[in-house]
Structures are given as C-alpha cells and as structure tokens.
Design goal:
Helix content of chain B: 40-55%
Largest interface: A-B, 45 and 44 residues
Number of helices of chain A: 17
Strand order of the largest sheet of chain B: 1-9-8-7-10-11
Order of helices and strands of chain B: EHEEEHEHHEHEEEHEHHEH
Distance between the termini of chain B: 19 Å
Number of helices of chain B: 9
Shape of chain A: globular
Oligomer: heterodimer
Radius of gyration of chain B: 23 Å
Structural class of chain B: alpha/beta
Radius of gyration of chain A: 26 Å
Largest sheet of chain A: 8 strands, parallel
Strand content of chain B: 25-35%
Shape of chain B: elongated
Strand order of the largest sheet of chain A: 13-12-11-8-5-4-15-14
Strand content of chain A: 15-25%
Number of strands of chain A: 29
Structural class of chain A: alpha/beta
Chain lengths: 681, 266
C-alpha cells in the first residue's frame, strides 16, 4: 500500500499530509456547480474531499445502475476526474448504510422491505428507526440476503471506482459502511434476533468455546448441542456464575459489527478496490460496547468518531475525544460538525468555533468537516450548494485549517504519564445488567451515567460493579486533573503495549476481571511498572471462575499511604502495586486528595495545573511545548497557571505574550480556547 | 403531510436557529419521578432532571407529596419495568411502512396512550391530555386552505433585518419544500419588508411556485402575540399598527373560512 497512517496523518507516496478533509455530496449538487464547490474546498485549504456514494440513488432498477448515463449528477467518474484535476484526494463512503440524512439512509426500498433482510426484536417484531421523513425497518448485517445484494451494488460501483484509485486517480480511502451501530438501536436486548443473527450467535459461541461441555460448565446448565442455546432477551442474572451468558451476548454484539466491517473490507479487496485506506466511523457517542475501536482497527486502518455537539456540551466532547485519543491509532473524526441536520439540535457558528478548538485541545488530530458544501437537508456549512462562500463560516474554516497546518498542530504528542484503563468486561456488564435493555441509551449517552440504566442488584458481589467501575475510573481522571497530571484513557482490548508507554496504569478493579487484562497487568508489574487499582484485587476471571494472578502481589504491603482512604503499596515483580480500598466519588475532595497524594508519591509530573472553571491540556513535539487553555463558560476570568520557574507563553493566534515567575495569569473571554507556546525566557 | 422526498434547501443557519428559538419557551418544569417496579419492588427510580436515585424505596402513599417536594419533582409515575419493552413491541408491530411520517408518529402516540392511561399509576395526576389529531383530517383541512403547487411563507423581521423565514411548498397533498429567504440571497440583507413583499412573492413564484399566503411580522409583535392569550387579537393589533401583514390581503378571509371549517369539523 502506498498510503500509510502515522500518528500525525497520512503518508501518500513519499509525502506526509494531514488528514484534514471535508464532505461534499456530488449527487445533491447541480453538476454545473461542482467545479465551483470543489474549488472553494481547495480555497479553504483542504487537500481531501469526502463523499458518500448512495446505493439508492444510483440503483434505478433492481440490479441496474446509473453512473451518469441518465442523470449527470450521478456521474461519479466525472466527479472523481474533476477532483483529481483540481489536485484533491478523495475518500469514498459507498455504504451500504450511509444515513446522509437521505430517506431510507441510502438503501433501496426493496432492500429494507424484504423480510429476509430485516433485523428482529426478541419477539420477532421488526426494528423500526423513526427517521424523518420516513421511518423504516432496520436491516440486519447477519442476513445473507443483504450480503448477496450488497455484492451486486459493490460489483457495480467498484467498476467505476477502480480506474480512479491512487496512485492513478484521486481515491485514497474507502469507508466501510457508516455508523454501524444496529441503526442506533443499541439497547442490549433490542436486537438482533433474526434467524441469521441467531445462527451467527451460535457460531460465535462455538468458535469461542469449541465444545458444548465447556460451555455447559461455564453457563452452569446442560447444553447438548449449539442449537440448545437461545440468546438472552432480558437481564435475569443474580449471581456471578449467571453473568458469562450475558457478557458473551455483549461480546457477540461487538463481534457482529467487527465481522461485518471486516467482510466489507474483504469485499472491496476481492473487487480489486485495494491499496487505499479502509476506514469507519462510530456514531456520535462514547466509543464503548458494542463499539470496539481497538478490535476494529485490527482489520481497518482507522476508526473514528462523529461529533455534533454544541459548546454547552463541552464535557461530553472532552470525554469522547479523550476516549478516542486513547483507543485509536489516529484520533480522527470522520464527521465533525460544520453545520447540522435540521432535526439535530441547533448548532450555531459560535458552537462550531468552540467545539472545533475543544476537540483539537483534547487530542483530535484529523477532521473531516461534515458538510463543507451545504446541500439539501443541511445548514451552516462554509460553502453553499451553489459554490458561494458563507462569509463568516468560510473565514473561520479557512483560518482554522491555515492555523493547524502552519503550526503543524497535528504533529503534537500528548506525552501522558498515566494510562487510565477501562476494563471492557465491566463495560459489557454495564451494558447487559440492565432492566432497560430494550430501549436505546444512545440519546442519553454522556448525559446520564450508567446508574440510570443499570440494575442496582450487587449480583452477589460486594460492589455494584456494573456502575461503580465507571465511578472509579472517573474519580481517577478527575483526581489526576486536579493534580495537574497528563493522562490518557485506555481500553483493555488494546492489550499490553500501551501500558509500556506510561509511567503508571490506573485501573478500576473488582472481584472479577478479564483473564487477559490480569495477565497484562501482571506482566507490566514484572517489568517494573506501577499499577494503581481498587477497590478489590480480582479473584475471578472472564468466566467467573477462580483466576487471580494479581493476588500473589498483595500478601504483605510494604507501605500504607497516609490518606483518608486506605491505600496500600505492595512490591510487585520489579514494580509497585497500589491498592485503593474503596470506590472513590468523582470530583470529591476525598478523591482529589487521595489521587493527588498517590500522584505525588509516584512522582507523576505536574504540568501547568490550572484552577476550575478553566481547563488545560499540554502537548509536545520535538522542540515545542504547547498549552491549550479553555474557558468553557459564560463568565470571563483570569486563568492562573502554576509554573515552577519563569515562564513566557505566546498565544499562537493573537500573538499576545504572558509572563510569570510562579504563576502566569491569562485573561480569558467566555467560551474561549487559547493555544499557547512556551517560549524561552 | 410530509413528503418522503421533501427538499429542505437553502436554510440560512441564523434563520433556522432563530426559528427554533422562537418556539422554545425555555420554561423548565421541575421534572418527574419515574418508578419502575418488578414484583412490587422498586428496581429503578429516575428523576427526569437529576438522573437515577439509587436504592429508592417508595414510601407509604400519605408521604408521597412530601417526597415529591423533597425530590423537587412535579409528579410521579409508577409502572412495571417491562412496560417499555411491551410498548416498543406494540409500536414496532403496528408500524406501517407505507404511511407518511406524521401518520407513523401519530400511530406511535396512539399505541402509547393506553400504556400511559392504564398502566402507569400517576401521582398527583397524569400528564395533561395527550393530544393526537387524526392525520387524515389534518391533511384534508390543509388541502382546503392550501392548494397543491403553491407556497406559503412566514417572515419575521427585527427592524429591517430578517430574523427568520420559512417558505413551504406543497405537492400531491404533501409538504415537499422547506426553504428560507436564503434561496433568494436575501436572508442577511436589510429589507423594507412592506415595500419588498411583492418582490419576494414574485421571486418565490419564479423559483418555486406562487406564494399562496404569507405572514410578515415584526419580531416584537410576534413575541407579544405568542405571549398573549388572545393571539388573533394581538395579530390584528399588529396589522393595525403596520407591524404585521397577511399577504395577500384576501388571505385573512381564506384563513377565517378555513378555521371555521376546521373547528366546525372537530
């Protein structure tokens, strides 16, 4: 492949280019305006344009396609030639699901209306997506009939795409499907119970356990054949041994998405659409189960997350960008708001300005602005559908791209000292141990915590792990923020290697934990790492049977930390294990004090702490230290940054300079984010 | 009412955000306590503004008012935890793919009604009447007032600056166009709307279809009208003061006739 992903963008041929792009939907724009629109994309400073290729628009009869012979707006080949002539690369998104705010989300009606293709609820009812302007039954990616029909579509569109693949043509990327998420109906027991899904579920269990006797032992009931197993349709677990049945269901749902993405990628390769990036985008939500970025990036080059927040949702954007930064090999948003759909919350230009900077501040390195060119069912883009500039919008995006490119902000590194891990098994328990598994939690994602959805039964454990794990990890994060540490989220699916790059790993730990993570933590300790965990040392593994490689380290503490909370230090291998013996309340004084003292004890570097309501992030490259300061509120104020010695900062946008000896005072307007570079004094 | 192929184009972002703001009262109620039970035991309590209340135990009935005050909740609904699952099943099983979206949503509300009325114990009272309208009647009423192949408009001005605008088109009994003054490049330019109304109507006719009727109104008058109890009275007052106009003038007679028909029909 001549295109590679690095930690700061793409290498195409010999050239390093940032992954900064914007969307234009060719088929929705009058052909006579294509050139004007693309020229404006270029004038904004973008080198890549991105477009969906809608199955339902190109299919004029079942199995018959129009790529410009009947309507010139459908001439995908001409669009690609034009992009190339203007020096633009192209990323294509041929679905089959595209959403694109198009009726039926890009599927021909005949596909959605076919009962053999529809996903099912637990009682056989179709899964309805109440999308405007027409609700539709969601298809199932476990339907072989769907795959067969997708093959017909891919055959047709591959013929048009092939001649335009890089290096001969401009196409550098193919997005495999779009926001694959059970069509946003992500409740654990909402779907999919279609025949195809049941077959896939049984195959999944067979591959995982190989022998029904093994499964019988773990599920604690007699299973003669794989067909004896029916998936859960509600949560009825009461004790630890009941849980593997539900946790497997959650894992299977990740597997449905991951396998479908891999299958789509392989379908392109079989059709000689290859040598390009294969990407995917997760809908605008926290990338937790059924999403699994580390797993999906084993088959795809980059998996990003879509963002459409307002500035008032700053905590949500922070949380999601940070999660993505910790999970993906390249933190990228395949759809970052530049305008909005009318049925989404109103997003103003002020929102767009603030959230774009906020995403950059928390580590987003690649943006695809959706939409750069406005079209039907969209507003607030910098370029109108006639190719004219919307002045204020156009100026903002032009200046932003120029700023990011001139300052090479995509090359900055976070240099986090601490990795805060999210054990995926707890996440799966959170998702499945719920009395509300039939409703979609996505609209509340990031707004209501897991307490709102999870069962309150301790399930035979000391703690209600299904939501207390999230409390513990948030307490770690808030406490380390208050201390001034730079940290990063991690996903236990990423395995051992991210641990090695950090001075310490903080990990919520309860009576059970996945086997692999326990092994990884033990290996990390053996090689000299520090693990802060709690409130318990796991005694059980993934299948709830006894498994406890970490317990051998905690027989005799060498030190008890002088804290309000019991916290013990153990020598563990060549490293240290610190056990915090209770669940901490995020943001509480007790948690801040506890985490601050632990961080001091571990000599975690303190980097420019700042008092609330202001927030800061710190990045580095080979020669620079760059500090972002945010004021995410309506009040103006002065951010006081603690420094250990004389410091001089320059605002990279305004040119203002700020100097201080033990603190640097920086005036902040409401909803402002400053990007400061540390200069030699 | 809504065409599946509705074209929503040339929406000025400020006009859209202002339109949404106009209809957002900004009033916040105190929220509601939802109690979910299984076998007579509370398994989950959620305050719609504050989130989950862990380990909630429903007190004796005589303490409910005090409890709601303490939790700052307007009312409480107690229901079986499986109600949501049953509602979703009923709703999905009743879905008619061929229907228009508004028909599909009305059906959803119809399915929801008996659950809310019969399966949730409310205290002190249930939500106010759940309004559902017969989509067929609405379609018929709109058809009487607004013929196919014509547009209707709603234009609000803050001084001479366009504040928000909506132009809707209709074909085959369904709304198939939603646009704003941006379609004519006029969303951000100062306009003497009294002098320009005819010109805008001509632009609308040449680009889409003739403007069948429109309301032009100044923002301050619209706000007064929306706040006031006698909305038609406020509209007439604004017209008298030259701060609002129904266009074309005979529209008001058509509107009166339509209202008479609709309300007599109901």
């Amino acid at each position: 492949m001549t295109i590679q992903v690095t930690d700061s963008g793409l290498i195409i041929g010999q050239k390093h280019i940032p992954l900064l792009s914007g969307s234009m939907h060719y088929w929705r724009i009058d052909r006579t305006h294509w050139e004007k629109c693309l020229s404006k994309v270029k004038a904004l400073g973008f080198g890549i344009v991105c477009t969906y290729v809608p199955w339902s628009v190109h299919e004029v009869q079942p199995g018959e396609f129009d790529f410009g012979e009947m309507e010139q707006e459908r001439d995908l080949g001409a669009f690609l030639r034009l992009a190339q002539s203007l020096g633009l690369f192209v990323i294509l998104r041929p679905g089959p699901h595209i959403n694109a705010e198009i009726t039926d989300f890009g599927f021909p009606s005949r596909i959605l209306d076919n009962p053999r293709i529809q996903a099912c609820g637990p009682e056989g009812d179709p899964i309805i997506l109440p999308a405007l302007p027409k609700a539709f039954p969601a298809p199932s990616y476990c339907s072989e009939k769907l795959w067969e029909q997708m093959g017909v579509w891919f055959d047709a569109v591959a013929q048009v795409i092939r001649p335009h693949l890089h290096p001969k043509g401009p196409v550098i990327g193919m997005q495999c499907d779009n926001e694959m998420s059970f069509f946003f109906r992500t409740g654990a027991y909402e779907q999919d119970y279609s025949d195809g899904a049941l077959e896939a579920y049984r195959t999944f269990l067979q591959n995982k356990y190989e022998d029904t006797r093994v499964l019988s032992g773990i599920y604690g009931r007699r299973i003669e054949t794989w067909n004896d197993i029916a998936p859960p349709i509600d949560f009825e677990g009461q004790t630890p041994v009941d849980l593997p049945y539900y946790l497997d269901w959650a894992q299977f749902r990740e597997h449905v998405i991951g396998d479908a993405l891999a299958r789509i990628r392989n379908m392109w390769i079989e059709r000689e659409v290859d040598g390009v990036l294969f990407t995917h985008n997760i809908p605008t939500c926290a990338a937790r189960t059924p999403f699994n970025i580390p797993r999906d990036e084993k088959v795809l080059d980059i998996v990003g997350v879509d963002f459409y927040p307002t500035k008032k949702e700053y905590p949500v954007i922070r949380q999601r960008v940070e999660a993505l930064e910790g999970q993906s090999r390249f933190p990228w948003s395949p759809e970052f708001t530049s305008g909005a759909y009318h049925l989404w919350q109103p997003i103003t230009l002020d929102d767009q300005k603030f959230v774009t900077m906020a995403a950059l501040m928390h580590g987003l390195k690649g943006f695809n602005f959706y939409m750069l060119v406005e079209r039907e069912r969209w507003y607030g883009s910098p370029i109108t559908r006639h190719g004219d500039a919307r002045k204020d919008y156009f100026e903002f995006y032009r200046d932003f791209i120029s700023f990011v490119q001139n300052e090479r902000l995509f090359e900055l590194q976070k240099n986090a000292s601490v990795l805060i891990l999210t054990p995926r098994l707890y996440d799966r328990l959170e998702k499945t141990a719920t009395p509300f598994g039939h409703i979609t939690p996505m609209p509340f994602d990031g707004r209501l915590g897991p307490e709102a959805f999870c069962s309150e039964d301790p399930l035979g454990f000391k703690y209600r792990i299904q939501f207390e794990h999230d409390r513990m990890r948030r307490a770690f994060a808030r406490g380390l923020d208050a201390f001034g540490a730079t940290w990063r989220w991690g996903d236990s699916q990423s395995g051992f290697s991210p641990m090695r790059r950090h001075q310490a790993v903080f990990c919520p730990s309860f009576e059970f934990m996945e086997d692999e993570l326990q092994k990884d933590l033990a290996s990390y300790l053996e090689m000299g790492g520090t693990v802060v965990m709690g409130p318990e040392v796991p005694a059980r593994g993934s299948d709830m049977r006894g498994y406890s490689p970490l317990s051998e380290y905690v027989s005799r503490p060498v030190h008890k930390l002088d804290l309000d909370v019991d916290a013990f230090v153990f020598n563990a291998g060549a490293g240290r294990l610190i056990l915090v013996s209770q669940v901490l309340e995020p943001g509480s004084a007790q948690a801040s004090d506890c985490l601050g003292r632990i961080a001091e004890f571990l000599r975690v570097p303190k980097k420019y702490p700042v008092e609330t309501p202001f927030e800061r992030t710190v990045f580095h490259d080979q020669s620079r230290t760059v500090l972002f300061i945010a004021n995410p509120g309506d009040e103006q104020g002065v951010a006081e940054i603690s420094v250990a010695e004389k410091h001089l900062f320059a605002d990279l946008q305004s040119g203002e300079r700020f100097f201080g000896t033990d603190e640097v005072r920086i005036a902040m307007q409401p909803w402002q984010i400053r990007v400061l570079e540390k200069l030699p004094c | 009412m809504l065409s599946p192929d509705v074209k929503i184009v040339d929406i000025d972002p400020a006009h859209w955000c202002n339109l949404v703001k106009l209809f957002d009262s900004g009033e916040m109620n105190r929220g509601m306590l939802l109690v979910f039970e299984k076998d007579g035991q509370c398994v989950k309590a959620i305050h719609t503004k504050r989130g989950a209340i862990l380990d909630f135990v429903l007190p004796e009935k005589e303490h409910w008012d005090a409890m709601l005050d303490e939790l700052d909740a307007e009312r409480m609904g107690v229901m079986s935890v499986d109600l949501l699952r049953r509602f979703i099943y009923e709703a999905q099983s009743s879905f008619i793919r061929e229907d228009d979206w508004d028909h599909q949503m009305m059906m959803l509300i119809e399915v929801l009604k008996p659950f809310i009325r019969e399966e949730i114990a409310w205290h002190p009272t249930g939500p106010n009447k759940i309004a559902t309208l017969d989509p067929e009647k609405i379609d018929a009423a709109i058809d009487k007032f607004w013929p196919d192949g014509r547009c209707v408009g709603f234009f609000v001005f803050d001084g001479d600056a366009p504040y928000t605008s909506v132009i809707l088109g209709k074909d085959k009994g369904k709304i198939d166009l939603f646009t704003t003054l941006d379609a004519f490049g006029m969303a951000q330019t100062p306009i003497d709307w009294k002098a320009q109304a005819k010109h805008i109507a001509e632009l609308c006719a040449s680009k889409y279809s003739p403007l069948h009727g429109a309301l032009w109104i100044e923002l301050s008058s619209l706000r007064e009208m929306m706040r006031g109890e006698k909305k038609i009275g406020y509209l007439r007052l604004a017209q008298t003061r030259g701060r609002a106009a129904l266009w074309p003038a005979p529209l008001k007679w058509r509107l009166a006739l339509w209202l008479a028909r609709v309300f007599r029909g109901l």
